[in-house]
Every structure is written in structure tokens, then in C-alpha cells.
């Protein structure tokens, strides 16, 4: 299958491109820079120069592909309104090109804010609609196109897709620990975050492209919920720093923007996804990755 991938040089996208190529698919990756284009060519993928604001490039990539995997996002935390608008426009553009083709259209989504008081299930519809909603309501927008002949599939990623080289949320927690001299968690730290290793995430994206039916909500989740206190303790052990609770009102000052939701529960189940696709996560757990030095450069010292 010829697959157009946005975000092809990103953390998840690069691993997904590798997974798709290894499975025999042809990949065209959206490339914002010459360096990204060169990296794709070195792997054996074809670059398509452009970015999320280049709607003509998006149209061309989708029109010439047999499937689309949309993983790019601006992630401009200083202007989330613009980020959300860009995401909605990109999804609308890609979906319109694919109308009437029954070709697969996979897009990245998340589990935050979908339900409260329990893990998110694949059967839980997103409450976010419209351009002003998180991610511009893109999940619902894409799923609406199922009725228009698009095999739309939502990829709900765990808040941490971990592994060596990750510069995401766990890396930010490590940076905060180094900056403040303590490894913190919010409140009592019993709220949990779901997690998945990067290699497992890439494999699930491929399986979803190949097998998932239209309208599927796939949970890219290996661990349903890792208590945030346990994450802080693992970081503290890896860095040799004390572990402490941070009051909710002090969380943003301590962690930066991440503090606004590090105290939230972002747990999610992937039972249905695993059964649907025959996907069994095999990568290291989040705590094992931290202990092995994936985020600190050195593992936890072992006793002699």
C-alpha cells in the first residue's frame, strides 16, 4: 500500500515510517525541512515537501496515496487556539480528498478530557466538536466522513509514548526535576497516566491501517494507568534526587505548562483494541524505561 504520512520525521512518525517500510508498504512522508526530507530518503521513503499550512501539499499527498496516516501537529503550547485551528483545517482537507474512496484515514488523537472517574474506553465518544475544541474537534470531524466513503480511524495515543530519545512529557518532568532539585508529583500522586512504548505504538498504527474497520477508535495504550507518584519516584531514583509532593496550586510554577494537567487522571483501557487487531504490547514499561536511563542517560545503580 502507498501510504502518505504527516509528521513522518517526528517521534511517533519516524517509528511508524520504519514499521510501514519493514512491512513492505511504500511511504511518502510530509517533510518541512531539507534535513527531514534527507532522513526519509535515507530510509527508503519518498519526501513530499510541505507542512500543515501547505494545504496543496496535503491534497497532493492524500490524492496519490492508498492510505493516509496523519500524525503531525503544531503543538504550540503558547497558542493552542492556532494549533487547534490548524489541526482541524488539515483533517478537513485530507478527509475531503479521500471522500468516496473507502481508503483508510488514520489520525492522531488523545485520551485527555474524554471521561472522568474511570479509564477511557474505546466506546467512549469524544465530547469535543467544533474548531474551538481541543484538537479542533478533529476526531469527530474525521469520523463524520465515514458516511462519505472514508475509512476514518482515530488513534488515541497515551499521554506518554516513551522510549530512548523521547522529548515529550516525561522528558519535561525530568527537566523539572533537574531544575528544581526534586522529583515532584501533584497532590497525593494517585492519579494515573496511561503509557505505551514507541515500538508498540508504531506497530499498532500499522495494524490499524491494515485491519481496522471504518469508525474505529483505537487506543494506543499498553499500560492502563501508571500512578504519577510512581513516575516521580522512578525519576528521582534515576537522578538521585528526593521525591516530593507539589501542591496543585504550585504545579504550574514547578513543572511549567505541564503542571496544568500532570495532576489529572489520564488512564485508558486498550482491551478492545488488542482484541480487534491481535495487538499485544511487548516493549518495556514506562518505569522500566526510566530505570534503564532512557530519560536520564544512566540507569539506576545496582547493588554490588
TrEMBL record:
Residues 3-212 form the NAD-dependent epimerase/dehydratase domain. Transmembrane segments: none annotated. GO terms for molecular function: aldehyde dehydrogenase (NAD+) activity. It comes from the Bacteria. GO terms for cellular component: cytoplasm. InterPro entries: Epimerase_deHydtase (IPR001509), NAD(P)-bd_dom_sf (IPR036291), NAD(P)-dependent_oxidoreduct (IPR051783). This is SDR family oxidoreductase. The lineage of its organism: Bacteria, Bacillati, Actinomycetota, Actinomycetes, Geodermatophilales.
Amino acid at each position: 500500500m502507498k501510504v502518505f504520512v504527516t509528521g513522518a520525521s517526528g517521534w511517533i512518525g519516524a517509528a511508524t515510517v520504519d514499521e510501514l517500510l519493514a512491512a513492505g508498504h511504500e511511504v511518502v512522508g510530509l517533510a518541512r525541512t531539507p534535513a527531514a526530507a534527507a532522513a526519509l530518503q535515507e530510509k527508503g521513503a519518498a519526501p513530499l515537501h510541505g507542512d500543515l499550512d501547505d494545504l496543496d501539499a496535503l491534497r497532493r499527498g492524500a490524492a496519490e496515496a492508498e492510505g493516509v496516516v496523519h500524525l503531525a501537529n503544531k503543538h504550540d503550547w503558547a497558542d493552542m487556539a492556532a494549533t487547534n485551528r490548524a489541526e482541524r483545517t488539515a483533517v478537513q482537507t485530507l478527509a475531503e480528498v479521500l471522500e468516496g474512496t473507502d481508503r483508510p484515514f488514520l489520525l492522531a488523537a488523545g485520551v485527555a478530557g474524554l471521561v472522568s472517574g474511570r479509564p477511557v474506553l474505546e466506546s467512549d465518544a469524544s465530547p469535543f466538536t467544533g474548531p474551538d475544541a481541543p484538537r479542533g474537534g478533529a476526531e469527530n470531524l474525521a469520523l463524520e466522513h465515514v458516511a462519505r466513503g472514508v475509512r476514518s480511524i482515530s488513534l488515541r495515543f497515551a499521554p506518554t509514548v516513551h522510549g530512548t530519545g523521547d522529548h515529550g512529557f516525561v522528558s519535561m518532568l525530568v527537566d523539572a526535576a533537574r531544575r528544581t532539585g526534586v522529583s515532584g508529583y501533584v497532590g497525593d500522586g494517585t492519579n494515573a497516566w496511561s503509557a505505551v512504548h514507541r515500538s508498540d505504538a508504531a506497530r499498532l498504527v500499522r495494524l490499524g491501517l491494515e485491519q481496522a474497520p471504518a469508525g474505529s477508535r483505537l487506543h494506543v495504550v499498553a499500560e492502563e494507568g501508571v500512578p504519577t507518584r510512581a513516575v516521580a519516584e522512578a525519576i528521582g531514583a534515576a537522578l538521585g534526587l528526593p521525591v516530593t509532593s507539589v501542591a496543585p496550586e504550585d504545579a504550574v510554577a514547578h513543572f511549567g505548562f505541564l503542571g496544568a494537567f500532570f495532576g489529572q487522571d489520564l488512564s485508558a483501557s486498550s482491551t478492545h483494541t488488542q482484541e480487534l487487531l491481535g495487538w499485544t504490547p511487548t516493549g518495556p514499561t514506562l518505569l522500566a524505561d526510566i530505570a534503564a536511563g532512557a530519560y536520564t542517560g544512566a540507569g539506576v545503580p545496582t547493588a554490588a
